[in-house]
Specification:
heterodimer, A: mainly alpha, two-stranded antiparallel sheet, two-stranded antiparallel ribbon, 8 strands, 47% helix, 3% strand, globular, B: alpha/beta, Alkaline Phosphatase, subunit A, 9-stranded mixed beta sheet, 14% strand
Chain lengths: 797, 502
């Protein structure tokens, strides 16, 4: 647990350790009951559906258990909660009753409280029924971490508290090789052999079999590797994937018609913003309200494309205003999920059942987004306001062509009948020219507020044509009062103010989720009352405070986390009882181990094979896809035209995303229809079939085999090179014996049928490099394909 | 199929054994597999590994949720013949003789009552009524009315239970289909098939538990897009989402080994792969690795089972003839209906065949004929084929779309070629067969013009509750916690339609 001070060690941790007021020791059960941790989740889960904040629908028995005054008031001598007197509290009598008419929760709900939960409520009342706020709505205070002064990493110190409580022993550090691969995949989404390459002495040493790959990495070495990876342009690409999921970025509108759009300059802006480490508060303000800054630059307006990534409905028979209202709601709810971690969509139709948010709060939020002069009329892929992203020459050329077209049209219209045919031809030419120039100019839908403010109403049951009371833009004071709420800029500034209870917690939690597979709050999309109380709340709050006080420095925060011992632990399950005590590793005794996202698996295959075309940004590309997928889904209206050359091997981030039929090689990704912030990880056989059989992987295997065969003539050296690329570690004898067997099988098969070897090597559009024995190359291709499917290859561990 | 490797956890499984027995064997074998683990994980940890979901993303056990089914099931599987676009109830099954009397007259007073129609209709007052395009006749012992559009369905009416009082909340296709299949108009909730597999588990060893196939009649001018949220798993793990079989070439993407890689070589390589994964598992004990081994074995088995599934050469000619001339053509509804029966035989729990093109805004006298020709015979054949094999008793077949069509005309009465009807959510007809539903009955009724469900109205949530009931699931008990609340297919609504239960 020793944490030596390096030059990058942030001094403010030490300062903070002494300056901040202790937050009070963590209450180990059966210590005093803590309202927000122990009581509120029970009340919320079991009672609020009928006795919660929703005033109009559902509240029963004229009782609010979310409101201290109401819950404790005298009702003709009966008190639902009588502080200090559990036996005189109606709440407990109802919980303990066996009479189905009296019993709470009503037995037909089928969700009775456990005796532990009832006991908790009883103790809480006995201890005085002290009320409090939902933990996530409290101001973020940096917990006191005295261990820091002893050189212990604050993350480790805080994690250790949880481990001590549970009596768990942390794992030792992972092998350096495993660690470097873990870090490289986490921060760039690419394997270390590609990103670090020869720049890392460490990696070079590991290629040398004489170097012990298990010799530990020193802290300065580790720090320097972290810096290298954070400085890689691939860092921004890796971070962008998750942001694109949240922003529901896609290259088409969705719904029927599913017309194409060109939002990719916005996507490139995101990559660049991450690479330049734009502070998250700026990142927020630009995307939510860059257009409202004084004299906004083109970049600031471009950033607001975030809001306009929503689907656009072109279905016939749809009412334009209904569509427009849908878009406003989508913008509002996306903001709610990404920054607030709240399920605002619940409030479209009624007051929130659990969280202290009313339907009016929801529509006050929508008022911020309701001012854009967007039409809901369907069909048009690029509904204004749009920003054209092109060099001035391209714009000028287009404008000139437009004038020429208009002139030709005017001539045509005025011309006498006999001359029309000739003029028609020249008009068509000018029109074609205009179109070809127009197509070179990507148009990004962006935000703008119209001059004449649009009135916003509470909509009954969320229906566009059922307006209720008029509402003005405002934020819920229960979260944090705002000084001003005139427009989106005020909203964005409110979100990133130091006192905001949610933004930093929610954002830090997503970063933690990215690294550890599961957030400190498991429900990354919900920090409301129904979310679990984080067992590592102090850690979450410490990280959140650190993030805000560092100036929302994302790279610094990631560095803080990945330099902890917690991050660097081995992910092996070494103790059965420890595993049993914490199978989900929520207490972090082990390092994270989980299957990589499918897009990262593809990128890794391209990278290790040397096929990856690593350029950053640009229009979306069309990698391998079986024929007919788009045609089938669109009744022949859209046909997939595969890219050629290097564009087949760009990073997955740049794959064209058609909303009604997403890319075929990705699994468990967000659907890019509405905001999604929590990845799924499943193990469908369809995914295995893809990595076993799709041309992407077969071609990558061929190139990897080629690389290995040319690097060495000696088989065992070849095995080690292969292992270095795929697993970033040496292979052991037990493994290589099996690899040898695989090679033997493949050699047998291809020697018997050398035409089959030719066919395997012909998969993929990249040409075969000459000079290798066909049977041998095919046999190694088969081995490489198998190893691309190894659990360890598919997994970050 | 090549022999499985000695260490394969699937090796001792007897494919002929009933699913629960296989699960038991699987458990035992996993224990043996585990017993060899070098990490020395004891029996206690083992129980945990085998019973818990484990790390985030680890697979739940294949047997479904404990406690389900929570009542004796009548149906073990569902085949949903989804007629996408809104079949015209007043032209097919819901016979309204009075429509002939009021033909060409404005919509009579009292039927509209502020109802919402699609923008194509807008304000419906003053619209002209339209008689059924084809004549109706009564059929079978049950005397069910069926129009001349559906001659094959007419022959099997005594097997069918018609529900003529269905009504829904949505008036456009995508929201209405989403509402019917997932209980919510906005995409993002699990669909019926996903719920079913989540609750009851997957009973097929070699195929996914929820399979979807789509088709559209040739020459259809207004095909509706099949969105993948029609078979989505919403917030349930994606292993429960429908596996979309494609209608041409390979039904499963990337099913075939790469060109040049023989299946013998692949089997050998997969054996090696399993062994390498097992080494890793012994070293670090992550139960996810076991799941990986199982995942790859399932992929391999699908490589065998899917081609066998789509090989109709074992079907006698008289069976193929029953389904009609298109049965050999992948991607047609007839082909998909026969596939549905073959999937049902192989233990797949939820089979969703969606046929688009029932959107007759201006094609009642033209494309509707094609639409019926392509779907009528295969639907009837499927019911009878299942019956002949004794499968109809525990297979619930449902035929129906997302809404009906207006009893008034869309278009010009004088231009018969372009007669059409608009979307109509207030009353429409579906039929069900087998799986614990009373055969040869008609339940519920619309009013005398087919406008509104007036007798025993059945809401979409009631239909969903009834389907789950037939499968042995109390629709109020099958819940999933997401975003802090418990969700279910029927939201907070739904009543089982008991009078139609056998």
């Amino acid at each position: 647990m020793q944490f030596p001070c390096h030059r990058w060690f942030p001094l403010r941790w030490l300062a903070a350790a002494f300056l901040l007021i202790p937050s009070g020791g963590r209450s180990a059960s059966p210590g005093p009951v803590v309202f927000s941790r122990d009581v509120l989740p029970i009340l919320s889960d079991a009672c609020f559906q009928c006795h919660g904040p929703d005033a109009k629908e559902g509240r029963k028995g004229d009782l609010r258990l979310d409101d201290e005054t109401d819950a404790k008031r005298d009702r003709d001598g009966i008190r639902v909660i009588h502080a200090g007197h559990p036996d005189a509290s109606e709440l407990l009598q109802r919980l303990l009753s066996h009479d189905p008419d009296e019993q709470m929760p009503p037995p037909d709900l089928g969700r009775p409280l456990s005796s532990e939960q009832i006991d908790t409520l009883k103790r809480w009342i006995a201890e005085g029924a002290k009320w409090g706020k939902h933990w996530a709505f409290e101001r973020i205070e940096r917990p006191f971490v005295p261990e820091v002064s002893a050189g212990i990493h604050p993350v480790d110190a805080l994690v250790q508290r949880g481990l001590d409580e549970a009596g768990l022993k942390p794992n030792p550090p992972a092998d350096p090789a495993t660690l470097v691969r873990r870090l490289s995949l986490d921060l760039t989404g690419l394997p270390p052999s590609v990103v670090l390459g020869d720049h890392s002495a460490l990696i070079r040493d590991r290629e040398n079999p004489k170097t012990d790959h298990r010799s530990p990495i020193t802290d300065p070495q580790w720090s320097s590797i972290v810096d290298q990876l954070l400085a890689s342009p691939h860092y921004g690409e890796r971070m962008s994937w998750d942001w694109l999921d949240a922003a529901r970025y896609a290259d088409s509108n969705g719904y029927q018609g599913d017309n194409e759009r060109t939002m990719w300059p916005w996507r490139d802006w995101v990559v660049q913003a991450y690479n330049e480490n734009l502070p998250f508060d700026q990142f927020t303000i630009l995307q939510l309200a860059g257009d409202l800054l004084p004299s906004p630059t083109q970049e600031q307006i471009l950033a607001t494309g975030f809001n306009r990534n929503h689907m656009i409905n072109g279905e016939g028979g749809r009412i334009a205003e209904e569509n427009r209202v849908d878009y406003v709601m989508d913008m509002t709810e996306t903001m709610g999920t990404v920054w607030l971690g709240l399920t605002l969509n619940c409030c479209r139709c009624h007051d929130h059942k659990f969280d202290p948010l009313t339907q009016a709060d929801y529509y006050r939020f929508t008022a911020f987004f309701n001012q854009t002069p967007v039409s809901g009329a369907g069909g048009n892929a690029q509904t204004p306001p749009v920003l054209e992203i092109a060099p001035p020459e391209a714009i000028t050329a287009r404008d000139t062509a437009r004038k020429a077209r208009n002139a030709a049209k005017a001539l045509l219209d005025k011309a006498p009948e006999p001359e029309k045919a000739a003029l028609e031809k020249s008009f068509k030419e000018t029109e074609a020219k205009l179109k070809s120039l127009e197509d070179t100019i990507p148009k990004v839908m962006v935000m703008a507020d119209q001059k004449e403010p649009r009135k916003t109403f509470l909509l009954d049951r969320g229906l566009y044509n059922a307006p209720g009371e008029e509402v003005a833009a405002a934020v819920p004071a229960i979260l944090l009062p705002a000084p001003e709420t005139r427009n989106r800029l005020d909203l964005a500034r409110w979100l990133v103010s130091r006192d905001h209870p949610l933004t930093a917690r929610v954002t830090v939690n997503r970063l933690w989720q990215m690294l550890f597979g599961v957030g400190l709050v498991k429900t990354a999309e919900d920090f409301g009352l129904q979310a679990e109380y984080p067992r590592q709340r102090e850690l979450l709050d410490w990280l959140a405070a650190e993030y805000v006080e560092s100036g929302w420095d994302t790279k610094a925060l990631l560095k803080t986390i990945v330099t902890s011992e917690t991050y660097r632990r081995s992910s092996a399950i070494t103790s059965p009882s420890d595993f049993e005590n914490d199978p989900e590793n929520r207490l972090l005794a082990r390092g994270a181990r989980f299957r990589m996202p499918s897009w990262m698996i593809r990128d890794q295959a391209l990278a290790v094979s040397g096929l990856l075309e690593g350029s950053v940004g640009g229009p979306s590309v069309f990698p391998y896809q079986p024929e007919g997928i788009w045609d089938e889904a669109t009744f022949g209206k859209k046909t997939y035209r595969m890219s050629e050359g290097g564009d087949l091997h760009r990073r997955s981030l740049y794959t064209f995303w058609r909303r009604i039929v997403g890319p075929t090689e990705f699994f468990d990704t967000a659907k890019r229809q509405v905001c999604e912030v929590k990845p799924l990880r499943t193990n469908t056989p369809m995914h295995a079939l893809t990595t076993l059989n799709s041309p992407t992987y077969v071609e990558a295997a061929r190139f990897l085999a080629d690389k290995v065969l040319r690097a060495h003539s000696d088989e065992s050296a070849r095995f080690q090179t292969l292992s270095h690329h795929l697993l970033a570690r040496p292979a052991n004898a037990e493994e290589t014996a099996i690899w040898k067997r695989s090679l033997g099988r493949a050699r047998d098969s291809f020697s018997r049928d050398s035409a089959a070897a030719d066919r395997l090597l012909a998969v993929g559009s990249s040409p075969i490099r000459l000079g290798l024995d066909t049977v041998e190359h095919a046999a190694w291709t088969a081995l490489c394909l198998n190893l691309l499917n190894l659990d360890e290859t598919l997994t970050k561990e | 199929m090549s022999p499985l490797p000695a260490h394969s956890p699937w090796r001792i499984l007897d494919p002929a054994a009933p699913a629960p027995l296989r699960d038991h064997q699987l458990g035992i074998n996993r224990r043996q597999f585990f017993g060899r683990a070098a990490t020395g994980i004891g029996a206690g940890a083992l129980a945990s590994l085998l019973s818990k979901e484990g790390l985030l993303g680890a697979e739940p056990e294949p047997g479904g949720l404990t406690g389900f089914p929570n009542r004796p099931p009548k149906a073990k599987r569902v085949i949903y013949l989804f007629q996408n676009g809104g079949p015209t109830h007043v032209d097919l099954f819901d016979y309204k003789p009075r429509l002939h009397e009021v033909h060409g007259k404005p919509v009579p007073e009292g039927y509209l009552g502020g109802k919402r129609f699609s923008t194509m209709t807008g304000d419906p007052s003053g619209k002209l009524m339209l008689q059924p395009v084809e004549p109706f006749q009564q059929h079978g012992r049950s005397g069910a009315w069926v129009s001349a559009f559906m001659p094959h369905t007419a022959k099997i009416v005594d097997e069918l239970c018609f529900v003529k009082s269905l009504h829904t909340d949505a008036i456009n296709h995508a929201p209405a289909i989403s509402f019917l299949l997932s209980g919510a108009q906005i995409p993002g909730r699990p669909t019926m098939g996903a719920w079913l597999n989540y609750g009851l588990g997957v009973s097929s060893e070699d195929l996914p538990g929820f399979v979807v196939m789509t088709s559209v009649s040739k020459g259809t001018s207004c095909g509706q897009i099949f969105y993948d949220f029609y078979w989505g798993s919403g917030f349930l793990p994606t292993r429960f989402q429908g596996a979309k079989f494609r209608g041409s070439r390979d039904p499963v993407l990337y099913l075939n080994n790469p060109d040049g890689l023989s299946s013998d070589l692949r089997r050998g390589l997969l054996d090696d792969l399993s062994e390498l994964n097992a080494i890793k598992f012994r070293a670090i004990g992550d139960p996810e690795i076991e799941t990986r081994i199982a995942q790859y074995e399932m992929a391999y088995r699908m490589q065998t089972s899917v081609p066998e599934l789509t090989d109709f050469s074992d079907e006698p000619d008289h069976i193929l003839a029953m389904y009609g001339p298109q049965v050999r053509e992948p991607g047609t509804f007839a082909y998909n209906c026969l596939m549905a029966r073959r999937l049902a035989e192989r233990g797949v729990n939820f089979i969703q065949c969606m046929h688009a093109g029932w959107d007759q805004h201006n094609s009642l006298t033209t494309e509707l004929y094609t639409q019926c020709r392509d779907t009528d015979q295969p639907s009837a054949a499927l019911v009878m084929d299942l019956k002949m094999r004794g499968l109809l008793d525990d297979t619930l077949v449902i035929w129906g779309g997302e809404f009906g069509r207006t009893p008034f005309i869309q278009g010009d009465l004088g231009n018969r070629e372009r007669w059409g009807r608009d979307h109509h959510p207030y009353a429409f007809t579906i039929w069900m067969a087998g799986g614990g539903v009373k055969p040869g009955i008609t339940y519920g009724a619309s009013d005398d013009l087919g406008f509104n469900a007036v007798e025993n109205p059945v809401h979409v949530h009631d239909l969903q509750a009834t389907i789950l009931h037939l499968l042995g699931i109390d629709h109020e008990r099958l819940t999933y916690r997401f975003q802090g609340r418990y969700f279910r297919l029927t939201d907070v609504h739904g009543h089982v339609v008991r009078p139609i239960l056998a």
